[in-house]
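Hey,
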Amino acid sequence: MPEEELEKATNDIIINYLESSSPLEWHKTAMDWNWDNDLTVLWWIINNPKTDKATALMIYWMSAPRWGKQYANRQEIAENASWYLNHFDFIEDLESKYTSGFYTNQNYAYNPAKDFNGTDWTNEYTDKPQLREISAELLVELKGEEIKYPDNYIEGVPENIFNEISELIDQYDEDEDDE
């Protein structure tokens, strides 16, 4: 199995899990997500209108949106930081959805200035010039049920899903060794 197929297969396992789970589980996945992974799973979450507004806001701030605001537009990023284009598109799409009212469910709490682990995401990359502003709406704390960090999650998924992915990766590694 080529590496791209392995990545797709692991994303499919996670998305299949999320499809049969509640928005609370999507929130927990976002809380524990490994940002070194690709964005496929997070794209699935932000494209789902059932996603809680707090989940979307948390994902937005955890994606470090201020970094890209030092560029005037996508073209400027393409010319200066092309490796960032997918991330830029993700953040811009999420920002647009959030500010246009795409997310109508709001049950959970989230404060970008003091999230579940005490991080003030609103101060990230404030040393960079800001050619584009972040909407004031994205700075507003959301009140609701406080969700505790999921102890039984590994890399954004429950342990049993992580183990299923690990088995797939182990099989991939064995296949690679046989070649």
